Amino acid sequence: MTNKDLMKLKLSLLIFLLFAGFASSQTSDRLAVVTSSGTKYIPVYERQGIIYFSLVHFAEAISANYYYNEETRKVELKFDKYNLKITTKNPYIVLTSRKNNQSESYQLPTSTYFIDEQIFVPLVYSIDYFIKASGNNIVYEKPDKIVFRGKVIPEKDETKTGFDITGINVDEKVNGTLVRVKSEKRIATYTSSYKNNILMIVFRNVNVDEEKLARIYGKGLVRGINARNTGKDTEIEFTLSNEYTTNEVLNAEGSNDILITIHNKIFARNEEREKNKSKWDFDVIVIDAGHGGKDAGAIGVGGVKEKDVNLGVALKLGEFIEKEMKDVKVVYTRKNDTFVELYKRGKIANEEDGKLFISIHCNSTPKKPSDAAGFEVYLLRPGRTKEAISIAERENSVIQYEENPEKYEKLTDENFILVTMAHSAYMKYSEKFSDILNKQMSVDLPVSSRGVKQAGFYVLVGASMPSVLIETGFLSNKKDTDYLKSSKGQKNIAEAIYKSIKNFREYYEKVMQTEL
Ligand SMILES: [Zn+2]
């Protein structure tokens, strides 16, 4: 073969490859999605024998509630059991339980694709997670058919009078502006996009009272609001000030309303600081012995005071760390029987640049003695069970001993959204640590585990770092109390916590290495 021929061959190969590449980037409607209202065909993209399907088209075919953020290219599908979150060009699927808000993330062998403004998900690799999220309401029939057995929301009833979206509240907060879009009807799907100071949100299949919304003025970062009906949908445009940085759109708990958090530069700076901080060394641990001084905490069987048990465990834990982790500084929020306000505990932790915050407490029931026994590990999240709410109320009630208890803003759902968003940077670490703690304590202690739970503790709100609160046992229980008040028991607990820290540190440093 001459050089010229070789060139020709190379050229034709190149053209072929280009063409093949071009051809394979096309999508075609050939994945059948079967529901009780019929069969729809949704776009798929095939690459190296793997079928990827369009997530938004799938959500619409099964009329699932979904939220597509066009800015971050993130889609969240709301199923009965879990919310399923997928980001473009990212191999992770995140399932968040609708029951307890716990998240699990799974790594797929390939990333998702972004083609024609749509996110394409690898079918075979991801289908099990869709099945799980839907509570087994999805059946995959190989190779190109998905059957959805769940309820399909009927199309909007056109004969209905009255409006779905009836108003908007705008509130200024430290971190930005909170907008509540009031809706009479559950808004199944909405998409948002931001361009040139305009945040545009399209609410699907709802109408809006245009006249009423035209009378609402902006506040804070929101300079103007413009709402209109377009076909079956509602479009709301928010004109934002230059202080705007990011936004989140969420369904409000317990109503049909939509919450939009519009963040300012203070929020962005805090986020940035958190991100950088999380890359620092694991060098400071903050140990918070609950209560103290005039605040005894729970009073247990035989008059045992919670504040004394907490301090005993805290000091013993500090000793373990100081002895075994010479490169880690231990910071105590109190080292003796003194009263420290809740907000100060978080402040101390932040000022010392803590990398982990551990708040130590004991549980109790109103009736003493009682059978309830065991330890619990708490994460900061809205308490959803009666029990979690009452424990948070009890632990938070110590602010009555403080001089200005009114400075604690009530942890309403709205405030929680702002708080947990500020905590989102380290939530995965808090989750990991609580998981490790729960396992280690279950193995090492005679006190039984009541599991990892979530509730709204003020003391955790203040600490800007991975944090947990441990209820080490019940002072209202005779057996737990005997263990908790004993020096040996306190030492055992401290050692189990120390081992968990050691374990967590390995995980933390591994993650930091890969993130750097
Ligand atoms: Zn307590």
What would you note in describing this structure?
- The protein is α+β, with helices and mostly antiparallel strands.
- The chain has 3 domains: 25-148, Copper amine oxidase-like, N-terminal domain (Copper Amine Oxidase, Chain A, domain 1), CATH 3.30.457.10; 165-266, Immunoglobulin-like, CATH 2.60.40; 278-515, Zn-dependent exopeptidases (Aminopeptidase, 3-Layer(aba) Sandwich), CATH 3.40.630.
- It has 12 helices and 26 strands.
- It has helices spanning 3-24, 55-61, 123-133, 210-214, 265-277, 306-324, 342-351, 386-396, 413-444, 458-462, 478-485, 487-515; strands at 27-35, 38-47, 50-54, 65-69, 74-78, 82-87, 92-97, 103-107, 113-115, 118-122, 138-141, 145-148, 165-173, 176-183, 189-195, 198-203, 222-230, 233-240, 247-251, 258-263, 284-289, 329-332, 356-363, 375-380, 449-455, 467-474.
- Strand 11 (138-141) and strand 12 form a beta hairpin.
- Helix 6 packs across helix 12 (487-515), helix 9 (413-444) crosses helix 12 (487-515) and helix 11 (478-485) packs across helix 12.
- It is globular.
- The two termini are 51 Å apart.
- The model is unreliable at 1-25 and 155-159 (pLDDT under 50).
- The protein binds zinc ion.
- Zinc ion binds at residues 290-291, 297, 306, 361, 395.
- Zinc ion is lined by residues 290-291, 297, 306, 361, 395.
